[in-house]
Write a structure and sequence with these properties.
By secondary structure, the chain is an alpha/beta fold. Helix 10 packs across helix 12, helix 21 runs antiparallel to helix 22 and helix 22 crosses helix 33. The chain starts with about 25 loop residues before the first helix and ends in an 8-residue tail after the last helix.
């Protein structure tokens, strides 16, 4: 892929014209340089300060400088953004619509500058104006639009689709507040409001004229401070779209992420307000504005679950209305819908799209059932992201009945026809009929949203080879046997632009000098690094880039949190959402084993390590929050013990987000990917660590299996039970056997239960005993502890030999090409969406 280059020479800026240059290079050249925007005279930068903020540029705050700078960059991409939309319309191209409740996009300023190939010019312009470029970047909060891997994957996919010139739009919700901002107090996670939109967002563009009406069969009222539903009194919500640019690398294509915010209809009951019933007059407005206020409402309450249900429908209803409106603008034949529209459902959250699209085709387009059903299936595709039964959403039938009863009628009809088909194909198999049903019977009947998504789409894909196999053979085995041709695998990937080129510039530069810059858009080219693993000069350059990243992270950590770590130690990292199956507790037990060894033998030769943890626990997940508390207490105890001081350090870094990951992952020496085998669908942090030269200590789970296939198992540290061993040992596994027969396991547990790590809070970690022993250790921490410790012992031996370590690390980088989101998107485009690139003219 060719990329436009900036002109190096400076020239006077001509007057702005109305021409529409064919590409970014011509756009920049039409101004002679970047000077009208952010260059020599800073006209547009100062224009935004003066006319947007009405402030003297000389006294602008850092936040105001960031906003003006960002808007100047948006000015540069604006014409190309318009040209992209215009080209799609003129070509009537088939488009991809990616529906996701999360888009963990991180910060946009540096990403957009990098993808527009403006880095040197922008930094020079900032310096010329006396601005701190890195300080400007720090003024931008991480967008609170996602939480973990699901949302980050969606963001990577948008990046790849734009780079590959695939006509695509992402659809999500514009949450006013993110999940929460995490702080730590006395070792405990504290949840604080993440009002990331408090100061506005310079990247988004409100499109009020493209608002959508969403009709519900009930309305809402405030009573005793609570919002309650009023059945059979229809109401309307308004979805207002806010568009954000998705800049493809090189600036050739700029796609759109469209986020919906909820509002009340444009009327106000003055009669009700005038009588003094202020609460009644405002209740509809309060209800509407609350809908998109928070990402992941507290699902430990019925009210929180109900809000989540309504969020999912609101996303689907707004997005499909927008998609159909766009389709009808250029097409009159409904049979062409699957030829022009491909809708991807990112997990079960948007699976109401099956019923909603069918409703639109039946009730608005007035098609017959058979035709509408075939069009629905051909248009929709579904990605499954979990094997955990509790993560496969099921919504009460009663909620459908109250809020969207027409959709319930449609789901019942889909189910009736499905069960009739199953009974004919599998006569007498009543168990199968019950398992594939869209309706789960019980005291409280529920709709199985995963089943609905599978039945109502033409493709269901898993996100790693082992995950896709288990999905077919275990999780939804019966449906896979009914629809075998619909199931396929698309192993996840991550964008190398953000996670290597931007996050790790030192390593990126070394790679470019060694093999050229083509790897940025074709990550498979990294395989050319294999021969450099034997090159002593490249190995030294690689180690130097790692030292630089570690020092940079240590400096940032001290300046922002006051915590001091030694960049000369091995950085041993475990950064993920806090969950029992991800086994942060197993890692803590391993650290205690090492700690006990040093206490027993202070002369033991151990590579000094800094153990770094980060991740958030769901507010209602008490055990996960206790694990965070334990990790912090463990760190405090080790810090206070002179026997291990300078040799072991445990650190929990709060508020794990994209920006923190961009700093920490390049600095990491070791990546812990230690989920119980068969529980991690894929993982994407494992790919980012590998791409940045960290060595993986992991179970044979998710995409780690494929990483080992690419790099060779000898270049990873694999340990523990396999998927089959986990399944086959369920009936007889007892954690007490390991407690009784392995001295180090017993000593580690006894140390916890003796309150060694909680002398001022006796008994606080008693729930860990219940989890690991009394309740049977469901995630098999103790079964894997011994082999996990041995794997890390081998890590220590290798790390003591820098040349050997560098060789394995380089081979990992060289083997990470498969795990580019570009490769994943190419497979989606070819196998599922049947969509071609549409170059922008």
């Amino acid at each position: 892929m060719s990329t436009p280059a900036l002109r190096e020479e400076k020239s006077a800026a001509p007057e702005k014209s109305n021409q529409n240059p064919a590409n970014l290079s011509q756009l920049l050249e039409s101004y002679g340089s970047l000077s009208p925007y952010i260059g020599a005279d800073h006209a547009f930068y100062e224009h935004h300060l003066l006319y947007d903020r009405v402030i003297d540029p000389a006294v602008a705050s850092a936040r105001e400088q960031f906003e003006a700078f960002s808007r100047s960059i948006r000015d540069i991409l604006a014409q190309r953004w318009v040209s992209t939309k215009k080209t799609y319309e003129q070509q009537n191209a088939k488009r991809v619509y990616y529906l996701s409740l999360e888009f963990l996009i991180g910060r946009s300023l540096a990403n957009n500058v990098s993808n527009l190939l403006l880095d040197p010019a922008v930094q020079q312009a900032a310096e010329a104006k006396g601005l701190d470029w890195l300080g400007l970047i720090e003024q931008e909060p991480d967008a609170g639009l996602g939480n973990g891997g699901l949302g980050r994957l969606a963001a990577c996919f948008l990046d790849s689709m734009a780079m590959m010139q695939i006509p695509a739009t992402g659809y999500g919700l514009r949450y006013e507040y993110g999940m929460f901002r995490q702080t730590i107090a006395n070792g405990w996670q504290q949840e604080n409001p993440d009002n990331w939109l408090r100061d506005g967002d310079p990247w988004e563009v409100a499109r009020h004229h493209e608002k959508v009406e969403v009709k519900l069969n009930c309305s809402f009222q405030l009573r005793a401070g609570n919002i309650e539903t009023v059945r059979d009194r229809p109401s309307t919500l308004i979805g207002i779209p806010f568009d954000r640019p998705v800049v493809g690398y090189g600036g050739k294509t700029i796609n759109t992420l469209r986020l919906w915010t909820a509002a009340a209809p444009d009327y106000f009951d003055f009669k009700e307000f005038g009588t003094g019933d202020f609460v009644g007059a405002l209740s509809d407005t309060l209800e509407a504005e609350s809908l998109t206020r928070v990402l992941y409402p507290d699902d430990s309450t019925t009210a929180g679950q109900g809000l989540r249900f309504l969020q999912e429908y609101f996303l689907v209803a707004c997005s499909l209305a927008d998609i159909i409106r766009r389709f009808k603008r250029y097409n009159t034949d409904w049979e062409k819908l699957p030829e022009k529209v491909a809708i991807q459902l990112n997990d079960t959250h948007p699976s109401m799209a099956v019923a909603e699209l069918l409703r639109l085709l039946l009730d608005d387009a007035h098609l017959g059932w058979d035709q509408a059903w075939e069009l629905t299936k051909k248009t929709l595709a579904y990605t499954n992201h979990t094997l955990l039964p509790e993560a496969l959403e099921k919504w009460p039938v009663a909620w459908f009945d109250v809020l969207i009863p027409r959709h319930l009628e449609i789901i019942y009809e889909i189910n009736r026809r499905l069960l009739d088909e199953v009974r004919v194909r599998f006569p007498g198999d009543n168990g199968r009929v019950e398992r594939v049903s869209l309706v789960e019977e019980g005291e409280r009947r529920k709709i199985r949203m995963a089943n609905l998504a599978i039945v109502g789409s033409h493709s269901t894909n898993g996100v790693a080879a082992v995950h896709s196999r288990l999905l077919r053979t275990t999780t939804v085995k019966d449906l896979a046997e009914v629809f075998p041709d619909r199931f396929n695998n698309k192993t996840n990937g991550v964008t190398p632009r953000r996670w290597l080129l931007q996050a790790n510039p030192a390593l990126g530069q070394e790679i470019t000098q060694a093999i050229g810059k083509e790897w940025v858009t074709d990550l498979s080219r990294l395989k050319e690094l294999r021969r450099f693993a034997e090159d002593g000069g490249f190995r030294e350059a690689f180690l130097a880039s790692k030292r630089q990243a570690k020092q940079r992270f240590a400096d940032w950590l001290q300046s922002t949190t006051g915590q001091i770590i030694d960049p000369g130690t091995l950085f041993d990292c475990h950064v993920k959402r806090i969950h029992e199956y991800k086994r942060q507790l197993l890692n803590a037990l391993r650290i205690i084993v090492v700690y006990n060894r040093l206490r027993s033998n202070p002369e033991l030769d151990v590579v000094p390590r800094t153990f770094i943890f980060a991740g958030k626990a769901a507010p209602a997940y008490r055990l996960a929050k206790l694990i965070i508390k334990f990790l912090n207490n463990l760190g405090a105890t080790i810090d206070a013990d002179p026997v291990v001081k300078g040799r072991l350090k445990v650190l929990f870094v709060p508020e794990y987000n994209v920006s923190l990951a961009e700093r920490l992952i390049p600095a990491s020496d070791v990546s812990n990917q230690i989920s119980t085998a068969g529980y991690e669908a894929s993982g994407t942090s494992n790919m980012k660590f590998m791409m940045n030269g960290a060595l993986t200590v992991g179970t044979r789970d998710g995409a780690t299996i494929e990483m080992a296939e690419e790099a060779g198992e000898e270049n990873l540290f694999l340990f523990g039970l396999t998927v089959e061993q986990v399944v086959n040992s369920r009936s007889w596994y007892s954690p007490y056997w390991h407690y009784d027969h392995d001295a180090e396991t017993r000593e580690a547990l006894d140390l916890i239960f003796s309150d060694h790590f909680s002398p001022d809070e006796p008994g606080i970690f008693a729930p860990l005993r219940e989890t690991l022993l009394t309740m049977g250790d469901h995630y098999m921490h103790l079964a894997d502890l011994k082999s996990y410790c041995e794997a890390h012992h081998q890590v220590g031996i290798l790390y003591a030999d820098p040349e050997a370590w560098a060789k394995k690390a380089i081979l990992n980088v060289a083997s990470s090409g498969k795990f580019s989101s570009d490769r994943t998107i190419a497979e989606y485009a070819s196998d599922i969406w049947k969509v071609e690139p549409c170059p922008v003219i």
